[in-house]
Design goal:
- By secondary structure, this protein is an alpha+beta fold.
- 33% of the residues lie in helices and 27% in strands.
Length: 281
Amino acid sequence: AYDIRLSLVGSEMCIRDRNRNKANGVISNDPISQRDINKVLELTQGIALPPDRDILHTIPQEFIVDTLEKIDNPIGLSGKRLEGHVHLVTASTSGMEILIESADELGIKINGLVFKPLASAIPTLTKDEMKLGVSLIDIGSTTTSIAVFNEGAVRHSAVIPVGSSSITNDIAVMLRISIEEAEKIKIKYASAKASLSSQKLKFEIPNSDDNQMISENELSQYVEARMEEIFQLAFNEIKRAGIDNNLTYGVVLTGGGSQLRNIVVLANELLDMPIRLGRPI
């Protein structure tokens, strides 16, 4: 099934291509080459997409040669049929063009675009994690991206239109202050887990009447509520992969939003699986 959503999406589909070299009318079993693999992957370009959507990545998951399944690299094997399971990531055509044009105006040459959690996975995940199962949750400013890895390949990916800027906006609205001031307060006082923040530590609300004060704990209660929403939406996407019970290494958190204090404690409580912060390896 090919799952289309209004954001960067992933799906699995089965592409079949017959690897035939005719010699006197007989199908030969010549060894599979990189050219054969490329031809199988090229067939994905013919899939029907909604208007203004283009394929950003075609990521192989596994190959099947005749009856041999779950092959990572079929080059050199012989067979009559090569089948590939791939993960497709699509993106807005106009959105990608705007990114490239904006960079070009600054004199920056773009060689290519990469889906954010895939880029984050390269420096933060180990081969064992991707092999035995792990989910990467990249909490950005306006979006949260998810990529689920198992058996060394991406099994599901998604983008949620909620990020750490939502927390900043909540603080700004609650305290009736500017976005800039709210961001500073979030970084300095906010905790993802309200019970681990101080009720006694109070700070003055900027530009408030009568020097109004608020405790770190009261502030963090609003922050925790928003983080619970983000993790619940992320967990729903992880479950869509259908392998949440096989994620040996649980979840790795990356992105600016993952730097919120006590976020690992909250994530562990809500997701009930191993949690760690992603660090560049």
